[in-house]
């Protein structure tokens, strides 16, 4: 039986973001949609739940394996909005297209997805109207009908 090996931590490459300001979302179907991003949660990667392959032949430990496929997670954002968004949403909701996350350092993440939901918060005197917009990442190119993962483009110096 081979033992796992000790690995020393190396210095990370790249440059960490120093501030989350400003991160913007663009839809290929409507690049000037009438909302203003307040908080953006970019999509993440999720390898899925572990696979239990423990059998009656195990002696001391339950054994697990990783899944083969990766999920690009949803991207919820909090926005201020113009009531005109109610008419614009009809060209975005459940309509597949390209979505771009513009990071503060100028790098971008492009993926296939669609607007799943627009949920306004209660309107309160003295506060601007906010809403939660949820973007679903599909990893499916609807033009060519093929699986297509996200494309990250970094800027020089990162």
Residue share in helices? under 10%
Strand content: 35-45%
- Summed over residues and divided by their number, the pLDDT gives a mean of 95
- Helix/strand-derived category reads mainly beta
Shape: extended
Indicate the CATH class.
Mainly Beta
CATH architecture assignment name: Beta Barrel
Biggest sheet record: 7 strands, antiparallel
User: Which fold name is given in CATH as the topology?
Assistant: Elongation Factor Tu (Ef-tu), domain 3
Number of helical elements: 1
Distance between the termini: 41 Å
Q: How many structural domains does the protein architecture include?
A: 1
Which residue ranges are poorly predicted, with pLDDT under 50 across at least 5 consecutive positions?
Answer: none
Can you count the beta strands? 13
- List the secondary-structure elements in sequence, H or E: EEEEEEEHEEEEEE
* C-alpha Rg (nearest Å): 21 Å
Task: Describe the fold and architecture.
The chain is mostly beta strands and about 160 residues long. The protein has one domain (about 25-155): Elongation Factor Tu (Ef-tu), domain 3. The chain is about 5% helix and about 35% strand. It has one helix at about 85-90; strands at about 25, 35-40, 45, 50, 65, 70, 75-80, 95-100, 110-120, 130-135, 140, 145, 150-155. Strands 1, 2, 7, 8, 9, 10 and 13 form a seven-stranded antiparallel β-sheet that branches. A two-stranded antiparallel ribbon has the order 3-6. It starts with about 25 loop residues before the first strand and ends in a 5-residue tail after the last strand. The model has no long low-confidence stretch (mean pLDDT about 95).
């Amino acid at each position: 039986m081979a033992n796992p090996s000790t690995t020393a931590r190396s210095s990370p490459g790249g440059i960490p973001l120093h501030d989350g300001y400003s991160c913007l979302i663009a839809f290929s179907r409507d690049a000037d949609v009438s909302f203003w991003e307040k908080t953006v949660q970019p999509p993440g990667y999720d390898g899925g739940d572990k696979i239990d392959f423990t059998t009656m032949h195990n002696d001391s430990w339950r054994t697990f394996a990783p899944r083969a496929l990766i999920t690009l997670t949803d991207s919820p954002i909090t926005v201020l909005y113009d009531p005109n968004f109610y008419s614009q949403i009809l060209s975005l909701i459940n309509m597949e297209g390209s979505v771009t996350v513009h990071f503060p350092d100028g790098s971008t993440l492009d993926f296939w997805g669609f607007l799943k939901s627009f949920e306004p918060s209660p309107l309160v005197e003295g506060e601007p109207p906010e809403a939660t917009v949820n973007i679903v990442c599909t990893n499916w190119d609807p033009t060519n009908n093929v699986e297509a993962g996200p494309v990250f483009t970094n800027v020089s110096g990162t």
